[in-house]
C-alpha cells in the first residue's frame, strides 16, 4: 500500500469500511476511554488515532512515556537547546540492586517497585518535564529550561524522594529501594546528538553506580559558555582597543 | 543508547584515551582564522624537515583542504567508509612532500557523528598513525560533537587564534570545553595574523591569565598554554591562497612562511 502524496490532504474514509475491531479492543483492554461521538465522523476517527498514538507512547506497566516517546522528545529537546541556547538537563536513573528485589520478593514485588518509583519520579519534577521508562529498571527525565545551578538540587530531590518511599509488596510487607542518578546538560548553542547526550548522562550514572549507588552525579556544566567577567578579563589589555 | 553501562564506550567525555602524540588536532573555535592554511603549510614545513606528514580533513568535507591545495581528488575518505576504495588509495601525495586524506563532499551528510562514523574514523586514524611522523587533523570550526570527537582522537592540540576579541573568546571556550570534558591540560597555541612582534606572547599571556582565574581552580591539575609561535599578517599569504598554492612553495622567504617554519621546528623539538 503506498502512502498518499504528502501535499494532498487525505479525505477520511468511511469508518464503516475500516477494520477497527482490534484497535478498539486494544484501547478497551488498556483502559483508554473510547472516543466519544458518531463513529462515522472524521472527528471520531481522529479521536481514535489520537488514543492509539497515546497508547503507543506509553509504557504499559507504569503509564510513563516509553522509550519511543523518550527518543522523540530527546531529539526535539536537543535541537531546541542548540537553537535557543536554553539549558536543559537529562537525568538517567537506575534502581539499585533491582535483581536482588526480584530474587528476594518475586517479580510481582519487582513490578510494584517499578510502579512506585515511577510515581515518585512524576511527583518530584515539574509537569513540563518528561519522565520515561527506557528499560527494565531504568528511567530517564528530560528537564527543559533547567538552569545549571538547579541541576543538583532537582536530582537530589528525586533521589531522596525514592529513598524515603516505602513500597508495599505484600499485605504486611514494606520494602524500600534506592536509585542511582547520572545527569548531563545539553550543550547550549552546540550541534550535538541525542545519542551523545544520553551517553554523557550514562557515564555519570556509571560513576554514581561505581561510587556506591544511591548517589547523584552530574557532569560539570556550562563549560562552553563564556561569562561577561571572563570576557572582560580576556580583553583587559589595551592591545585590542583598536579592534572595537 | 542506554545499552549496558560501559565505561570505555565514550571517548568524548571524561578522561580521553591515551592518543598518540604524533596525532595533532588543529582547531580554533572560531572559523576563518586560517586553520586550514596553517595545517597545510605547517605540513609542508614539517616535510621539509624530513618528516612524514599526513593532513586529514577531519571537518568531514568542509575543510576546503582540496581548494587550498588545488586538488581534484577522485578517491576520498567517503569511498573508504563506504567500502568503495582502500585506505591506501585514498591517501594522496602532494608535491610539497606530504600526504593528504580528503573527506569528499559526500561526507557532509555525516555532519552528525554516528557511532559507525566514529568507529570508522578512529580505525582510519589508527591505521595511518604508524605510517607517519605527524598526522594533522584539520578540524571544523566551533565546538560541535564532531570537533570534540576528532580532537579526542589526537594526542596533541594546536589551537589557532588571531588577536581579535571574537577569535580569542571562541578559542578560550574551546580550551575550557576540552579541559573540562576531555581532561586536556596541555595546549599548543598558534597566534596567526599578528600585527607586531611579541603579540603572540601577549595573547598567550592573556588567555593563560583568564584560564588561571576561571578554569584552573576547578581542575585537579592546571591547564597550560604553550606558545607554538606567531605568524605575522603578510600579504604573501593572501596571494598564495588566491593562487591556490602553498605559501611555503611560492614565497618561502616571506615573513609568514619563515614563521611557520619556526613553528615546525618547535613542534619537532618538543
Keywords, please?
heterodimer, A: 244 residues, alpha+beta, Alpha-Beta Plaits, 2 domains, 5-stranded mixed beta sheet, 8 helices, 44% helix, flat, B: alpha/beta, disordered N terminus
- Helical coverage of chain B, percent range: 40-55%
Mean pLDDT of chain A: 86
**SSE succession of chain B:** EHEHHHEEHEHEHEHEHHH
Q: CATH superfamily membership of chain B, which one?
A: P-loop containing nucleotide triphosphate hydrolases
Q: What is the first-to-last residue Cα distance of chain B?
A: 40 Å
Note the quaternary state here. Answer: heterodimer
CATH architecture descriptor name of the largest domain in chain A: 2-Layer Sandwich
Strand order of the largest sheet of chain B: 3-4-2-5-1-6-7-8
The name of the CATH superfamily of the largest domain in chain A reads Reverse transcriptase/Diguanylate cyclase domain
CATH class of the largest domain in chain A: Alpha Beta
CATH-defined fold name of the largest domain in chain A = Alpha-Beta Plaits
At the fold tier of CATH, the topology name of chain B is Rossmann fold
Sequence stretches where pLDDT stays below 50 over 5 or more residues of chain B: 1-17
Number of DSSP strand runs of chain B: 8
Question: Judging from the principal axes of the Cα atoms, what is the shape of chain B?
Answer: globular
Total count of strands of chain A:
7
Number of helices, counting only DSSP H or I runs of 4 residues or more of chain B: 11
SS element count, helices of chain A: 8
Query: Main sheet of chain B?
Result: 8 strands, mixed
Largest interface pair: A-B, 42 and 40 residues
Amino acid at each position: 500500500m503506498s502512502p498518499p502524496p504528502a501535499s494532498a490532504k487525505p479525505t477520511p474514509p468511511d469508518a464503516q469500511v475500516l477494520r477497527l475491531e482490534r484497535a478498539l479492543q486494544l484501547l478497551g483492554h488498556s483502559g483508554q476511554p473510547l472516543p466519544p461521538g458518531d463513529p462515522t465522523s472524521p472527528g471520531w476517527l481522529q479521536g481514535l488515532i489520537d488514543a492509539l498514538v497515546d497508547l503507543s507512547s506509553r509504557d504499559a506497566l507504569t503509564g510513563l512515556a516509553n522509550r519511543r516517546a523518550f527518543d522523540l522528545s530527546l531529539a526535539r529537546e536537543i535541537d531546541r537547546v542548540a537553537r535557543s541556547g536554553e539549558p536543559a538537563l537529562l537525568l538517567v536513573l537506575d534502581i539499585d540492586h533491582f535483581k536482588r528485589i526480584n530474587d528476594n520478593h518475586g517479580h510481582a514485588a519487582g513490578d510494584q517497585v517499578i510502579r512506585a518509583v515511577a510515581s515518585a519520579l512524576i511527583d518530584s519534577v515539574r509537569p513540563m518535564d518528561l519522565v520515561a521508562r527506557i528499560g527494565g529498571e531504568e528511567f530517564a527525565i528530560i528537564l527543559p529550561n533547567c538552569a545549571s545551578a538547579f541541576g543538583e538540587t532537582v536530582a537530589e530531590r528525586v533521589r531522596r524522594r525514592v529513598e524515603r518511599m516505602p513500597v508495599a509488596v505484600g499485605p504486611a510487607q514494606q520494602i524500600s529501594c534506592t536509585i542511582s542518578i547520572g545527569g548531563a546538560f545539553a550543550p547550549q548553542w552546540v550541534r550535538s546528538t541525542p545519542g551523545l547526550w544520553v551517553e554523557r548522562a550514562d557515564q555519570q550514572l556509571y560513576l554514581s553506580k561505581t561510587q556506591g549507588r544511591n548517589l547523584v552525579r552530574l557532569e560539570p556544566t556550562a563549560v562552553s559558555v563564556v561569562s561577561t567577567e571572563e570576557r572582560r578579563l580576556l580583553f583587559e589589555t589595551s592591545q585590542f582597543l583598536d579592534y572595537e | 543508547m542506554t545499552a549496558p553501562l560501559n565505561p570505555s564506550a565514550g571517548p568524548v567525555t571524561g578522561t580521553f584515551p591515551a592518543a598518540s602524540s604524533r596525532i595533532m588536532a588543529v582547531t580554533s573555535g572560531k572559523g576563518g582564522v586560517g586553520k586550514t592554511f596553517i595545517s597545510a603549510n605547517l605540513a609542508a614545513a614539517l616535510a621539509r624537515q624530513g618528516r612524514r606528514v599526513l593532513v586529514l580533513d577531519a571537518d568531514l568535507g568542509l575543510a576546503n583542504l582540496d581548494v587550498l591545495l588545488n586538488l581534484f581528488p577522485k578517491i576520498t575518505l567517503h569511498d573508504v567508509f563506504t567500502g568503495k576504495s582502500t585506505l591506501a588509495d585514498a591517501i594522496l601525495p602532494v608535491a610539497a612532500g606530504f600526504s593528504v586524506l580528503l573527506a569528499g563532499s559526500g561526507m557532509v551528510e555525516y555532519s552528525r557523528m554516528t557511532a559507525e562514523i566514529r568507529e570508522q574514523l578512529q580505525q582510519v586514524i589508527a591505521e595511518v598513525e604508524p605510517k607517519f611522523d605527524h598526522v594533522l587533523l584539520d578540524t571544523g570550526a566551533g565546538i560541535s560533537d564532531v570537533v570534540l570527537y576528532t580532537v579526542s582522537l589526537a594526542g596533541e592540540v594546536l589551537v589557532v587564534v588571531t588577536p581579535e576579541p571574537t577569535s580569542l573568546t571562541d578559542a578560550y571556550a574551546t580550551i575550557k570545553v576540552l579541559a573540562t570534558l576531555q581532561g586536556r591540560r596541555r595546549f599548543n597555541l598558534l597566534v596567526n595574523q599578528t600585527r607586531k612582534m611579541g603579540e603572540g606572547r601577549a595573547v598567550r599571556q592573556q588567555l593563560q591569565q583568564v584560564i588561571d582565574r576561571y578554569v584552573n581552580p576547578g581542575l585537579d591539575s592546571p591547564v597550560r598554554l604553550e606558545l607554538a609561535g606567531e605568524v605575522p599578517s603578510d600579504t604573501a599569504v593572501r596571494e598564495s591562497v588566491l593562487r591556490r598554492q602553498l605559501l611555503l612553495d611560492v614565497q618561502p622567504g616571506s615573513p609568514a612562511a619563515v614563521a611557520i617554519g619556526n613553528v615546525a621546528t618547535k613542534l619537532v623539538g618538543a
